[in-house]
Structures are given as structure tokens and as C-alpha cells.
Amino acid sequence: MNKNIEKLQANSADLRKQIIEHSAYEKVKTIDDLKKFMELHVYAVWDFMSLLKSLQRELTCTTIPWFPVGNASVRHLINEIVVDEESDVNRHGERKSHFEMYLEAMEHVGANTQEITDFISHLQSGCSLDESFGKVNTHPASRAMVKQTFSVIDQGKPHVQAAVFTFGREDLIPAMFLAIIEDMHAVHPEQMADFKYYLERHIEVDGGSHSHLALQMTTDLCGKDEKNWEEATIAVRESLERRIELWNGVQDLIERAIV
Known about the structure:
13 helices; two-stranded antiparallel ribbon; 2 strands; 78% helix
């Protein structure tokens, strides 16, 4: 493996460990707990797609007239990832983005999808992120995570975006959480079927071919420039810190509901 990749991973290992071992996972014991988890986490699913499309915009030509942009190998990498993330197949064999699949899973679990769909509608009508957050009363943890992602997008630095996409936004799903979902599925097979499929598909795609593609993309874009790798490491750590805050928010919601 590239020594710079190894160094970046080592410099963010402490935060990844906190995410994997976060106690929020074991707090998800009931369907109501899972609803709270999904209602905050759905923002991460949405802004992940925004980061992905920003990368595609930066690394390929998405305007008319078309011109060849950058490195063809990098174009291939990002376009292949986009195809799966934006037009995968759900458990019924229908073409859906991973975000749309997540919304379907939320609906079957009984989670509130109105907030995230209203949030997107406000953005589509021309509202800013902050205005849209305010209109739907987005949880502070979800808000902070989205704002950090869009600060990365607004920098317009493909090497930073690629690093955050690869190392800061990977969903580090521990086996314990998967076991909890399996147990819930055994008791509530109809409600849990879509979410179980989403997780399994997510692990299959993101943990398989996409991880190798993203590693190569980050390596190519950072190149041999030490400053690029330093900027990438800082942004990755910030992204992981926001994910920890998100899990803190989930845990707090669940614990307050128990009291």
C-alpha cells in the first residue's frame, strides 16, 4: 500500500476506533431506537451523495460542450462509483440511489422521512443550508456534519474531497450493530427487510470494489505533494469527529427517551 495512505490511516486510526466502538450502537435495542438512529443518520446518507457528485463535477466534464477533463483513469474511478451509488438495485430489483433506498427503509421501519424531504425541498426552492436547517429544526449533530461536508465541497480541492470520501465518510459498521439488526429482523421481518438489505448492500459495494477504487483515486489526486496529504489528513479527521458527534447525538436522543 502507498506509504502516504498508510500514514493517513495511522493519523486517523484513533477516531475510527472511537466510531467503531461507540456505545450508541448498543443503545439501539428497539424499533423506536432505530427510528431515532435513522432520522439523524439519513443526513449523512444524503450529504455523502452530495460529496460524491461534487467529486464527479470536479473530475469529469459535466457541462456542454464536452471536453476531456483530467486523467481518464480517475474519471473512470469516479464514474464507476457514481453508477452504483446513484442507480443501484433495491431488494425488489428496482433502480434506486442508495439515498432513495434508505428513505424506503425508513418508511418501512416507521421513521419520520418528512424532515429530510422538507429539508431537500427548501434547498431546491433556493434556501441556504442554514435556512433549510432552521425551517425543519435539524438536530445540531446532523447539522454540524452536513456543514463540514459542504465546507469540504466549497474548498474545490479534489484531493481533499477524495480523501474525505474515502476515509472520512466510510461507514464503519461494527459486527455488533449488524447482529442487532439481524435480531430485529428476526422479530420484525417486514419492517426490517429494507434496512437489512441496505446495510448488506452498502457493505458489499462500499467495502468491496468501491474501497479499492476510492483508495486509488485519493492516491492519484494527492500524488507526491506533502501539502496535499496534510490537507487531506486534517479534513479526514474533521469528518470523523463530526461522525462521532452524530453518534453522540443518537445516543443522547435514545437515552432521553428512556428516562
